TrEMBL record:
It holds the Pfam family Peptidase_S49. One of its GO terms (molecular function) is serine-type peptidase activity. It comes from Noccaea caerulescens (Alpine penny-cress). Residues 188-339, 438-589 form the Peptidase S49 domain. The active site is at residues 255, 454. InterPro entries: ClpP/crotonase-like_dom_sf, Pept_S49_pIV, Pept_S49_SppA, Peptidase_S49, S49_SppA_67K_type_N, S49_SppA_C. This is Serine protease SPPA, chloroplastic.
Length: 671
């Protein structure tokens, strides 16, 4: 029962040159990016920081820049700086008379189920998990690409008067929250209203809600604006009581997965890492809320520290517009749109509006094509019994898609969109190789979502350029391998197991009824060290960084995107729109020119996949139990996975059952 786990880290936020003034990266996020994440990308006036600097810099400052680059090369770092990349930022442009006429003409020929009544309000409810994958019409749940596209379409759709956004408790990560917030702010540039409604006010929910034009809540709404917490679970005491002895080989002082199995309390290194992550997330939240509400950062923090639970207090402080029930908000919108009281407010929901074609609204792309390859979920070599479509990264399937893009001449560039905490190390390495080969034929940009750590980062580092969100969790370049000795447990329950073997090390991973022999322990440690050095050295090579400098940022440490950027693990901060703009720059496509985005990982609409999605909810318990039994009895290969505790606690609802959390954390460390 031995597994090797590799850990990683996230991203950072720099400064950008805009006009004559310097704007912080957080300001860039507050000015959202317009992206059509499915088939096309519309960029009426994409700004390039590179071209801006070329016009503004004096010869002296240009010489200073060149001198700095030469110093970076001497240090072994020769990558471009963040401000050398285009931001992907977009200014909304009104259509001219001819463009409006063409759109109206196309609307006449839309299918009945794609028609929307003029003056309609787009209704959207955000809740729970939000997938970074495209969803078919048969799939349930929310899809970030479709949410993003709906905001873009609604901004340009003359039939849409505004958006009514219900925000329920979210369990997605901060990377996706940042992307959605960016689209909310972009939508506001159209001049249309976006009204938010919140029942349970947590930090993520309010972070999105305060970006809306107006935010309402019912009198009975719950307020949980108390701050941020992160919890780490330790199983050392549990194992000791039941007679299980974890034999852990940890490479990297921040490799907390080993602590989870063997310790009874948190280590100094793990405490340091978690504290820094928490500080980054909290600071980003305070800055965003301060910007949206117009309040001073210290005043927002002071309000949080008061422990406010009464929603009335949020109204008094100007953190929400008013306290109203849902029907009262709808009545207000009817009055605003001139709808009679006895008539229904014309609305179109998320699912129906997702079927409205971009062609109808004149949002199709140009002749140049950029491939989007989505990689989300845990990494494995083959499809497991618990896998559902789009829930994991199957190396063989993704490699086929990467090769198809490499062999095709129609794609000018490719974007690998990653949302993965890692998984099988061998699978990660095989995909790294294919992405590296792809990057030798055309520009490849890695775009990180909530998490791209360990095996997820392994994939990303093969790209020419890495783009991460401010709070993406990334890095985790480290290894931990563990085997469980069950001798005391077997003795307690009266179980006996005899092993007959041939070969000096044949029982290295199979004889759990006894501890390691000295020579076995030595081999076990050397194997882990070899896996770590291979990962670290490839990361150093991919990032044009000396090994000793990579060692400083590796050691299993998880970083936010902001900190990872400042340490050279990523190149630029932003969302998918910025990745697209950089891809255009690298492919020598003018930034103002439209491109067509081709989704390579489109959702399957085959009958077997549809039935498997339905069946997973019906017989899921039976399959889960079987999978857990398999997991506890058979383990294969080295794992490149970020610690499950880290990702789940920082990226989900804190009100979940702690017992379930403990089991999930334990099982994720074994996978």
């Amino acid at each position: 029962m031995a597994k090797l786990l590799l850990l990683q880290a996230p991203h950072v936020v720099p400064r950008f040159n805009s006009g004559r003034s310097l704007i912080s990266a957080s300001a860039l996020y507050r000015r959202p990016l317009l992206v059509n994440p499915q088939l096309s990308y519309i960029g009426p006036r994409l700004r390039s920081r590179f071209s801006a600097r070329a016009l503004e810099d004096s010869p002296a400052s240009s010489a200073e820049m060149e001198k700095e680059k030469q110093e970076q090369r001497r240090d072994g770092v020769s990558r471009e700086r963040d401000e050398d990349y285009p931001t992907g930022e977009m200014d909304y442009e009104n259509r001219n008379a001819w463009e409006s006429l063409v759109v109206k003409f196309r609307m006449l020929f839309a299918f009945p189920w794609q028609r929307v009544r003029k003056g309609s309000v787009l209704t959207l409810t955000l809740r729970g998990q939000i997938s970074d994958q495209l969803k078919s019409r048969f799939s349930s749940g929310l899809s970030l690409p479709q949410i993003s596209e709906n905001f873009v379409k609604a901004a340009y759709d003359p039939r849409i008067a505004g958006v009514y956004l219900h925000i329920e408790p979210l369990s997605c990560g901060w990377g996706k929250v940042e992307e959605i917030r960016r689209h909310i702010l972009d939508f506001k540039k159209s001049g249309k209203f976006i009204v938010g409604y919140i029942n349970i006010c947590g930090l993520k929910e309010y972070y999105l809600g305060c970006a809306c034009s107006e935010l309402y809540a019912p009198p009975s709404a719950y307020s949980f604006l108390y701050g941020l917490t992160v919890q780490a679970s330790f199983l050392g005491g549990v194992f000791e009581k039941v007679g299980i002895e974890p034999q852990v080989q940890r490479i990297g002082k921040y490799k907390s997965a080993g602590d989870q199995l063997s310790r009874k309390n948190i280590s100094e290194e793990n405490y340091e890492m978690l504290s820094v992550l928490l500080d980054n997330i909290y600071a980003n939240w305070l800055d965003g809320v301060s910007d949206s509400t117009g309040k001073k950062r210290e005043d927002v923090e002071s309000f949080i520290n008061q422990g406010v639970y009464d929603i009335e207090k949020l109204k008094e402080e100007g953190l929400i517009k008013d306290i109203r029930y849902d029907d009262e908000v709808i009545s207000m919108l009817k009055e605003r749109l001139g709808v009679e009281k006895d008539k229904k407010l014309p609305t179109v929901n998320y699912k129906k509006y997702s079927g409205v074609k971009k062609w109808t609204l004149g949002l199709t792309g140009g002749r140049d094509q950029i491939a989007i390859i989505r990689a989300g979920g845990s990494i494995s070599r083959v499809k497991g019994p618990l896998s559902t479509p789009g829930s994991s990264i199957i190396a063989g399937q993704l490699i086929e898609k990467i090769r198809s893009v490499r062999e095709s001449k129609k794609y000018k560039a490719a974007i690998i969109r990653i949302d993965s905490p890692g998984g099988d190390a061998l699978a990660s390495d095989l995909m790294w190789r294919e992405i590296k080969l792809l990057a030798e034929t055309k520009p490849v940009i890695a775009s990180m979502s909530d998490v791209a750590a360990s095996g997820g980062y392994y994939m990303a580092m093969a790209a020419n350029t890495i783009v991460a969100e401010n709070l993406t969790l990334t890095g985790s370049i480290g290894v931990v391998t563990a085997r469980f000795t069950l001798a005391k447990l077997y003795e307690k329950i009266g179980f006996n197991k005899e092993t007959i073997s041939r070969g000096k090390y044949a029982e290295l991973l199979g004889a759990e009824e006894r501890p390691f022999k000295p020579e076995e322990a030595e081999l076990f440690g050397k194997s882990a060290q070899h896996a770590y050095q291979s990962f670290r050295d490839k990361a150093a090579l991919s990032r044009s960084m000396p090994i000793d400098k990579m060692e400083e940022v590796a050691q299993g440490r998880v970083w936010t995107g902001k900190d990872a950027h400042s340490r050279g693990l990523v190149d630029a901060l932003g969302g998918l729109s910025r990745a697209i703009a950089i891809a255009k720059q690298k492919a020598n496509i003018p930034l103002h020119k439209k491109v067509t985005l081709v989704e390579i990982s489109r959702p399957s609409t085959s009958l077997p996949d549809i039935l498997s999605g339905i069946g997973s909810s019906v017989i899921g318990v039976d399959r889960t139990l079987k999978g857990l039994l398999d997991e506890l009895t058979v383990t294969e290969g080295v794992q490149a996975r970020m610690d499950g505790i880290m990702f789940q606690q920082l990226g989900r609802d804190s009100l979940a059952n702690p017992i379930i959390d403990l089991l999930k954390d334990y099982l994720s460390s074994l996978r």
